[in-house]
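Quick board copy: two proteins, each given as sequence then tokens.
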Amino acid sequence: MKYRSEIDGLRAVAILPVIAFHAHFPFLTGGYVGVDVFFVISGYLITLILLGEIAEGRQSIIAFYERRARRILPTLFVVLAAVWMVAYFWMLPTYFKDFSRSLGATSIFIANIHFLEWTDYFATDAELTPLLHMWSLSFEEQYYLLFPLLLIAMRRQRWEVQVGILTLCLLASLAVSEWGWRNKPDENFFFSFSRFWELLVGSLCAFILHRRGAPLGNGILAAIGLGLILGSVLGFDAQTPFPSVYTLVPVAGTALIILFGIEGTKTAAFLSLRPLVGIGLISYSAYLWHQPLLAFARLRLFGEMGAATTAGLSLLTLVLAYATWRWVETPFRRRSGPRAISRSGVFLFSGIGILGFLGIGLWGMADGLPERRAPVGVSFAALGVDEKIRPNRGFGRVCDGTFTLADDCRTSDAPEIVVWGDSYAMHLVDALRSSRPNVKLIQHTLSQCAPVLGITKTAPRYSAEHVERCRKFKQEVIAYIARTPSIRIVVLASPLHMLRDGARRYDGAHGGGSTEETVFSALTATIRDLESLGKQVAFVSPPPTTGKNLGLCLASAVSFGAPLARCDFDLEDVEPHYRATRSFLNRLRDDYAVIMLEELFCTEGRCRASKDGVLLYRDKGHLSHEGSAYVGRAFDLIGRIEQALSELPR
């Protein structure tokens, strides 16, 4: 196979936006599509090599896997070892437990399956997960496990039949991804069969070029291909359904460059520039290093990473990538000469590494090893900070997910107060109980399901299944409130993400608009419906938030011996969505009872993330268990609710 320098340059075009995207560089909101560019390139190169071997009658599955082991495993093992050592000394038990599970999954190339199941709303932040990026490596290896077998099975078929079979597989996989983002968006991102079509596009490019014997030449089409990739990097964002038909844009762009970007075209000349080719050569190592560096920096710097820091980390990524490419990746790929490693040596090394990291992962995922020594010199268990920022589901996990009247979700068979909403209602349970220890309370909550009748979210990330579950849940809650005369007060709580993500009325066939007025009219109608049932209604706002993980900032401050005050923030620095919610609730406050937690947390424009040594937050916006209890105890939350209700004009 003739070397094409433009392909290495294309790798640089893929890796640089990925690093920039994860480093949160502005404007590159679609940098994640670089991974999809890699998929097409990988499918093309692997298939072209296999087709050449089959044509020469020397195809060998063992030789193929030997090449993959030499190419992938040495650098992977070095990165995993380095990442594990830092995680062991720095990560809280809960985070280390999640990390260990991902380490074990990565070692046997099922990280995408691990993260596919890792869709808990309360799970570790993605940007703080050192091995999150390993999902793509695992996915590729799964393809490499299956595709050579398919290719060998088809080797006696005519070219047209082989291409037809691959095309059918491609279309089926694309259909899965298109169905998936509409119905299972979280799972769709990591699901293997939602992505296989991208590598198959590269494989089909290989079939075309192998039959011709040389690349096709068309400078205009190659330039269009580069434009499609760069347009995706600049134009896509977190709200773009992915993978889906939108993914065709960068995938088709990559295919056009592979097919038509031959030597002599301006696109190939650009991609063959020495800096791009050099970065492309180390792109695999750079991909492995970038996410752990960023994740650990955010952990150590309490999320406070400026432009200089992110730029420095991006440069460090390339430096480490060159080092591992030069002294790890390249030597292991050498199959002849005095320093070459034999095939048996490669497989022995691979087996030991895989089993070793699997064992280490299983060891840590049991309980997160709480007896490890924290940076301040005592064990994480002694600090107790992991317990302080554990997920706050109110009464408990059983109370989140479906409508329930379980004894574990209430303090009385005849409740007087019901807290209804999403996770921002759950976190008020401790506050209400500490405000009045004998309160007769029941919890009705469902994550990502605001207590607003008649409307639903419209953002792609919310599946049709969740929308229907939310609709049914709200109907069951309002019916329960209607038939329960003991209930006096209904406490509603939610950050009202519909203001950001869009909302539409159900109206039978899901018609309606998506403006603030839609949400306001639906919420006020919900409150009036509850009042018509003889209930008093109060809305409790979310706490102020900057969008940074305040809980982790507090936990890291404790672990590293830094002052808790470093996690405090100015009120003017709150995130845009909180500003919109605050404005919305101040409008609602004109006629209804609204409790603004901002007034409890912030004085003279400065908001506290902790008070009297109590960690108020557990993550970006939710109250910790102890923080919620503090709010109820120190500020008498129920008393404030009753006062707000008594002051309403009637």
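And the next:
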Amino acid sequence: MLMLEIKKLKKSFGTRTVLDINELNLYSGEKIALVGMNGAGKSLLLNIIAGLTKPDEGSVKTGGEISYIKQFMDKESEESITGNLSYDTDYFKILREFEIYGMEKYDWLSGGEMTRLKLAGEFSKNNSILMADEPASNLDINGITILEKSLKEYNGLLLLVSHDRELINSVCGKIIEIENCKINVYEGNYDFYKRCKQLEIDRKNFEYGEYISERKRLFRAAAEKKQHSKEMKKAPARMGNSEARLHTRGVNSKKSKIDAAAKSIETRIEKLELKKKAYEPPIVKIDIKECFKLQSKIAVYGSEITKTFSEKTLFSYSNFEIRRGSKTAIIGPNGSGKTTLIKMMLNGETGIHFAASARIGYFSQSLEILAPALTVIENVMAASEYSENFTRLLLARLLFKRDDIYKKVSALSGGERVRAALAKIFVCSNNVLLFDEPTNYLDVQSLEALEAVLREYEGTLIFASHDRKFISNLATELIIIEGRRLNSFSGTYGEYLESRNQQGSIVKNKAGDCMLD
């Protein structure tokens, strides 16, 4: 059943066209991810479909009611969610599915809890169209797993915007890319889209190369013909009149043929099918200067670590050890103390010890290392150990070009602020990086660029993240916060999940044996 029909839609801001969609038809049961760089128009398209923003031209027709999970909500909107809690059977069931219990007061809710409540509220409407803009923001891994299950079970038309590649891969069977204000449709998940996109780029660049080579060959051939025509000799002075006339007639005949051949080649050049180089949007490129090596084999260790707030204990009498050069992910549910542990490391609280030569770079999800009133270049130069020329080059590779570096931080988007904060860290020779949710607000391309540079980073990386693919691709060690303890695991996230599943199977088998007895 047709659920969404878009025709000749255009939306511009000033002289910049953001969306130019000729036609798009989407049907019930389709699960679609919208992808594109920050600022490509993903959220804008959702707002237009929801009727919150009017297009300049064109029409949008929907075949049912819309549930819209927005990325950002003001306090009034959030309070309206908690103020309209319904305890009918269906809604109560969904609240329990999202593991929401007794959350009646807005002031008591964490960011993750508010996100769960927001998701439960929209799912409970059971509308025929569901639009979700970064629905995994602030959710812990368990919350994302619940969200993933709910999205899979949803039967209507789903439009999803997310930088969580694993969520897209698991849920979506179609990708709509917004690029240069146009849309491109791919039938498959995110990995399939990436492969197709790369094949398209390779094919277009190959065809462009062949086109350029053929043009050059034809231009050379035409030039050679013209030069040959130009160099054809006139009749020598010693020839008689009749002989000279015969010579000139012969030369002119040959010259005409050569000129005609040159003209024919020029016509072929004009009729060559124009091939353009594949459009490749500007991408983030990050370099980290070589860091000073730690002398100690252990970068940081904790002994008898305890943290308590009021009457709540996050963890007690726990030990951990992080090896030099390792990439350690701190994982655990919302409110378990991941950010707290990173800040305890940063502050060198009692029981936590760094190697003597450790130089620490800290990325906070609140981006507190940036001064909002200062410009990008002022913020980064305040920490830079390198020349302004190098700093400008790094900022350019992070897509801060020309006058962008003079923007005040307060005027930057979320993704731009993250890139500016990363620049401020990367202009220092740190050999230990503490990163708290570094993937928030980044588009997938920027996220993958960060992932690539951190993978090659030779220092020690300690990070907290809810992005499962980011953890899977980076972590070599884990610290798991559970049961008020810090538990260490030597291995990747995938190996940890496999180990946990095996332990679960053993427990089930033992339970089964007991039941048989």
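Board note added afterward: Residues 104-108, 506-517 have pLDDT under 50 and may be disordered.
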